[in-house]
Amino acid sequence: MVALLENSLAGPTRPLGSPEIPQFFAPGAADAAVYRPWLYGAAAIHFVDAKRKLDETRRVAFRVPLAHNTRVVDWEAAESVDLMADQLLTQAPAEASYQPLPAGAMELKTFTRWAKNLDRWLARTQRLAVTPAPEEQAPATIGPKRGGVSVELVAILWELT
After folding, report:
1. For residue 37, which of 53, 16, 18 has the smallest C-alpha distance?
2. How high is the mean pLDDT in each 10-residue block of the chain (161 residues)?
3. What whole-number distance in Å separates Cα of residue 8 and Cα of residue 5?
4. What secondary structure, in 3-state letters, does the chain show?
């Protein structure tokens, strides 16, 4: 039902917003008629465990849907995507209509808050499974080292529906 409402609000041009807020396109099939906005975040996460002689960096990317009435972005509702920042396109791969952006996605102050929340969410939720030490009973996980989350990009991602 929300998608139908969003599509009914779609217009022929991309909402621009603040020029400081990056906007990219997901590569995709050209047979769709409407671009849907997402909040996209990509980061490198550094895990270190000296006891296990572990030093690993993992790249991750997530997206959260942006409905026209979105005020608060809930990164807990984010879905992981395989689309890394270097794969995003700066130009639309197909002609289509665009669903509207929420007001916050066009305001630098709000967008910056959403980006900071991504950093905090990643630091709190990202875990790496490790082989348990002999004295440990259950499987073990470790979080990123302090300061180990490096957000590479937070942007509006337009994807064909």
Report:
1. 16
2. 48 72 87 88 94 90 93 94 96 88 90 94 93 73 90 95 82
3. 5
4. CHHHHHHHCCECCCCCCCCCCCEEECCCCCCCCEEEEEEEEEEEEEEEECCCCEEEEEEEEEEEECCCCCCCCCHHHCEECCCCHHHCECCCCCCCEECCCCHHHHCHHHHHHHHHHHHHHHHHHCCEEECCCCCCCCCEEECCCCCCEEEEEEEEEEEEC
Rounded to 5 degrees, φ, ψ at 154 are: -125, 125
Residues 156 and 101: beta-carbon distance below 8 Å: yes
Tokens 């197909």 correspond to what residue? 94
State the Cα–Cα distance between residues 153 and 60, nearest whole angstrom: 11
- The dihedral over CA atoms of 67, 71, 77, 82, expressed in degrees to the nearest 10, equals 60
Burial of 13 (0-12, 13-18, 19+ CB in 10 A): exposed
